[in-house]
Fold this sequence. Notes:
Elements: E1 2-8, E2 11-19, E3 24-30, E4 35-41, H1 46-64, H2 76-90
Antiparallel strand pairs: 1-2, 2-3, 3-4
Amino acid sequence: MDKSNHTIGGQRILEHTGILSTYSAHAVLIQDDKIGIAILYNVNSFPTNAFASPQIRDGLISLLTGKQPVSGWMNVQLWGGLLGFSLYWAGFWQFEA
Protein backbone atom coordinates (compact mmCIF):
# COMPACT_ATOMS: atom_id res chain seq x y z
CA MET A 1 0.00 0.00 0.00
CA ASP A 2 1.15 3.48 -0.77
CA LYS A 3 0.08 6.85 0.58
CA SER A 4 1.44 10.06 -0.89
CA ASN A 5 0.88 13.78 -0.82
CA HIS A 6 1.92 15.41 -4.13
CA THR A 7 0.84 17.58 -7.04
CA ILE A 8 -0.80 16.43 -10.29
CA GLY A 9 -1.58 19.03 -12.95
CA GLY A 10 -1.18 21.85 -10.44
CA GLN A 11 -3.63 20.24 -7.98
CA ARG A 12 -2.59 19.23 -4.46
CA ILE A 13 -3.42 15.52 -4.19
CA LEU A 14 -3.54 13.13 -1.27
CA GLU A 15 -3.62 9.61 -2.64
CA HIS A 16 -3.69 6.08 -1.25
CA THR A 17 -3.44 2.91 -3.32
CA GLY A 18 -4.23 -0.69 -2.51
CA ILE A 19 -3.35 -3.79 -4.47
CA LEU A 20 -4.31 -7.45 -4.07
CA SER A 21 -3.75 -10.31 -6.48
CA THR A 22 -7.11 -9.82 -8.22
CA TYR A 23 -7.84 -6.09 -7.97
CA SER A 24 -6.38 -2.66 -7.29
CA ALA A 25 -7.79 0.62 -6.03
CA HIS A 26 -6.99 4.32 -5.71
CA ALA A 27 -8.46 6.75 -3.22
CA VAL A 28 -7.74 10.33 -4.30
CA LEU A 29 -8.47 13.57 -2.45
CA ILE A 30 -8.13 16.79 -4.47
CA GLN A 31 -7.33 18.95 -1.46
CA ASP A 32 -8.00 22.48 -2.70
CA ASP A 33 -11.34 21.60 -4.32
CA LYS A 34 -12.40 19.23 -1.52
CA ILE A 35 -13.22 16.49 -4.02
CA GLY A 36 -12.66 12.84 -3.23
CA ILE A 37 -12.82 9.92 -5.65
CA ALA A 38 -12.34 6.17 -5.40
CA ILE A 39 -11.23 4.25 -8.47
CA LEU A 40 -11.65 0.48 -8.35
CA TYR A 41 -10.17 -1.92 -10.89
CA ASN A 42 -11.35 -5.51 -11.10
CA VAL A 43 -7.89 -6.49 -12.30
CA ASN A 44 -4.33 -6.25 -11.04
CA SER A 45 -1.63 -6.41 -13.68
CA PHE A 46 1.53 -4.58 -14.65
CA PRO A 47 -0.01 -2.86 -17.71
CA THR A 48 -2.99 -1.66 -15.67
CA ASN A 49 -0.92 -0.36 -12.78
CA ALA A 50 1.84 1.16 -14.90
CA PHE A 51 -0.08 2.65 -17.81
CA ALA A 52 -3.87 2.66 -17.46
CA SER A 53 -4.35 3.61 -13.80
CA PRO A 54 -2.28 6.82 -13.87
CA GLN A 55 -3.92 7.99 -17.11
CA ILE A 56 -7.42 7.30 -15.78
CA ARG A 57 -6.64 8.98 -12.44
CA ASP A 58 -5.08 12.06 -14.07
CA GLY A 59 -7.95 12.31 -16.58
CA LEU A 60 -10.57 12.20 -13.81
CA ILE A 61 -8.69 14.83 -11.81
CA SER A 62 -8.57 17.07 -14.89
CA LEU A 63 -12.29 16.63 -15.61
CA LEU A 64 -13.32 17.22 -12.00
CA THR A 65 -11.27 20.42 -11.78
CA GLY A 66 -12.53 21.86 -15.07
CA LYS A 67 -9.48 21.09 -17.19
CA GLN A 68 -9.07 19.18 -20.44
CA PRO A 69 -7.56 15.70 -19.93
CA VAL A 70 -4.23 15.13 -21.64
CA SER A 71 -3.89 12.06 -23.82
CA GLY A 72 -1.21 9.68 -22.57
CA TRP A 73 1.58 8.26 -24.68
CA MET A 74 0.73 4.62 -23.91
CA ASN A 75 -2.25 2.92 -25.51
CA VAL A 76 -3.51 -0.62 -26.08
CA GLN A 77 -2.05 -0.88 -29.58
CA LEU A 78 1.42 0.19 -28.45
CA TRP A 79 1.32 -2.11 -25.42
CA GLY A 80 0.26 -5.05 -27.63
CA GLY A 81 3.01 -4.29 -30.13
CA LEU A 82 5.67 -4.11 -27.42
CA LEU A 83 4.42 -7.33 -25.85
CA GLY A 84 4.35 -9.12 -29.21
CA PHE A 85 7.86 -7.93 -30.09
CA SER A 86 9.15 -9.00 -26.66
CA LEU A 87 7.63 -12.47 -27.00
CA TYR A 88 9.03 -12.81 -30.52
CA TRP A 89 12.48 -11.60 -29.45
CA ALA A 90 12.51 -13.99 -26.45
CA GLY A 91 11.62 -16.92 -28.72
CA PHE A 92 8.16 -17.59 -27.27
CA TRP A 93 6.37 -16.63 -30.46
CA GLN A 94 7.46 -17.33 -34.02
CA PHE A 95 6.07 -16.52 -37.41
CA GLU A 96 5.44 -19.41 -39.80
CA ALA A 97 6.96 -18.87 -43.25
